[in-house]
Amino acid sequence: MIDIDGYNRDQEHCRSVQKRLDRVIDKLEAWKRACNEVSITASAAGGDVKVTVAANGRMTGIEIVEGTMAAYTHQGLEERINQALKGAQKAARHEVAEIDDMIGTGDFVAAFDQGVEAAGT
């Protein structure tokens, strides 16, 4: 014999879980979009060296003003590039932390839990 009431409850529970997962996915997509927009540029040597990084800290661009390479030894130039890179990476981490605060892990959990409370499970 088929327990139609149990079947209907299970079906409703599955729909509820799917809705919660959809909300979590929406939050995750918003977070990913926000992080993809992060592009931070920092400079060193009075602006002669500029480095741009993405949210993950990976360098996406470097700009060296004409004459800068001749003004420094290769080690000096490397130090200035690394200084600008570290500054940009630090700022990118800070920017991502702000995004996390706006659309953070707590929001993912809350999006899922809202459905749990509504379903009474």
Automatic annotation (TrEMBL):
Q: What is this protein called in UniProt?
A: DNA-binding protein
Q: Which Gene3D superfamilies does UniProt cross-reference here?
A: Nucleoid-associated protein YbaB-like domain (3.30.1310.10)
Highest taxon of the lineage: Bacteria
**What's the short name of a Pfam family annotated to this entry?**
YbaB_DNA_bd
- Alphabetical list of InterPro entries matching this protein: YbaB-like_sf (IPR036894), YbaB/EbfC (IPR004401)
- GO molecular function, a single term: DNA binding
